[in-house]
UniProtKB/TrEMBL annotation:
Cellular component, GO annotation: chloroplast stroma; magnesium chelatase complex
CDD domains: AAA
GO molecular-function terms, A-Z: ATP binding; ATP hydrolysis activity; magnesium chelatase activity
Family, per entry: Belongs to the Mg-chelatase subunits D/I family.
SUPFAM superfamilies assigned: P-loop containing nucleoside triphosphate hydrolases
Function: Involved in chlorophyll biosynthesis. Catalyzes the insertion of magnesium ion into protoporphyrin IX to yield Mg-protoporphyrin IX.
Catalytic activity, EC: 6.6.1.1
Location of the protein in the cell: Plastid, Chloroplast
Protein name: Mg-protoporphyrin IX chelatase
BP terms from Gene Ontology: chlorophyll biosynthetic process; photosynthesis
Catalytic activity field: protoporphyrin IX + Mg(2+) + ATP + H2O = Mg-protoporphyrin IX + ADP + phosphate + 3 H(+)
Domain of life: Eukaryota
Length: 355
């Protein structure tokens, strides 16, 4: 298949399947792609561990989506919940809507972004003189039905983090100026990354991310050499390197597409739901987000594995990523929060290898 001129002009992206190690981060990202309702990922780890590279590589695995042509909000031509008000009016009035296909967008949020840049602005002069709700879309509009990536999210202004999380939770962005209000759909996968040495997010904000992945510097000399050699090969001849990994990339793309289709038919038993909630309760996890995210992540993992029923092993794999950032911090507790979750899982479920 011949590449489009648009794709040829794009910046070369390191292939997702070529990334060595960092299984936890890659798994959390893939599960959010399979089920965006998981609620995004917070990736925390050392500098130079491939956080940004992995997130940007994710986009190449995503399928194309149908959008309304020339619509600034990437409106879905069939789902009213993902349509702008203008598109919905046309649908109600049975007007013809031009449809096109596009790659899922990944929007980078710069640290210095203002609220107007993120949310969009209303041209008050035109609104008052012409009676038109003249709206200049922001980054949230561009990110609708895509991925919004915030590098160094722990350095972002708390107010902006609140805005992002509110939009991610509700699926809508509303801009109000001088009594004039404009709303548009803003359903996106929110991915944040940061270095814990530069500060942590407030617990109430951290809790709003569906999953929390920890990454560390690879210690094994052989793996470090492999990473360095791959990076050097990619920088020397990006297209050749990408072609060498294309079969692996295509295999992963198909796996993701099939998992998204299978997700609707995946079931989790009542007994497993009870045990997940028991783990959350005994760990004193506030609220019910931990329960819900664990259900969703376990189902997404089963779908990714080509199964229609969640196993205890699926739950064991995802539950540390879903709960570790929701535990109350105890400075005197020497054990890692992820291990604490696994220990509680083993107590509630019995041996992780059973069932």
């Amino acid at each position: 298949m011949q590449s489009s001129p648009e794709k040829n002009n794009e910046r070369s992206v390191f292939p997702f399947t070529a990334i060595v190690g960092q299984k936890e981060m890659k798994l959390a990202l893939l599960l959010n792609v399979v089920d965006p309702k998981i609620g995004g990922v917070m990736i925390m780890g050392d500098r130079g561990t491939g956080k940004s590279t992995t997130v940007r590589a994710l986009v190449d695995l995503l399928p194309e989506i149908e959008v309304v042509e020339n619509d600034p909000f990437n409106s879905d031509p069939r789902d009213p919940q993902l349509m702008s008000h203008e598109v919905r009016k046309k649908v109600i009035n049975n007007q013809e809507i031009p449809i096109t296909k596009t790659r899922i967008a990944m929007v980078d949020l710069p640290l210095g972004a203002t609220e107007d840049r993120v949310c969009g602005t209303i041209d008050l002069e035109r609104a008052l003189t012409e009676g038109i709700k003249a709206f200049e879309p922001g980054l949230l509009a561009k990110a609708n039905r895509g991925i919004l990536y915030v590098d160094e999210v722990n350095l972002l202004d708390d107010h902006l983090v609140d805005v992002l999380l509110d939009a991610a939770a509700s699926g809508w962005n509303t801009v109000e100026r001088e009594g004039i209000s404009v709303s548009h759909p803003a359903r996106f996968i929110l991915i944040g990354s940061g270095n814990p040495e530069e500060g942590e997010l407030r617990p109430q904000l951290l809790d709003r991310f569906g999953m929390h992945a920890q990454v560390g510097t690879v210690k094994e000399p052989e793996l470090r050499v492999q990473i360095v050699e791959q990076r050097a090969s990619f920088e020397e001849a990006p297209e050749t390197f990408q072609q060498a990994w294309e079969a692996s990339q295509e295999s992963m793309r198909q796996k993701v597409i099939q998992a998204r289709e299978r997700l609707k038919s995946v079931e989790i038993s009542y007994d497993h739901k009870i045990k997940i909630s028991q783990v959350c309760s005994e760990l004193d996890v506030d609220g019910l987000r931990g329960d819900i995210v664990t259900y969703r992540a376990a189902k997404a993992l089963a779908a990714l594995g080509g199964r229609n029923e969640v196993t205890a092993q699926d739950i064991l794999t995802v539950i540390p990523l879903c709960l570790r950032h929701r535990l109350r911090k105890d400075p005197l507790e020497p054990i890692d929060s992820g291990l604490l979750v696994k220990e509680k899982f083993a107590k509630v479920f019995g041996s992780p290898l059973e069932s």
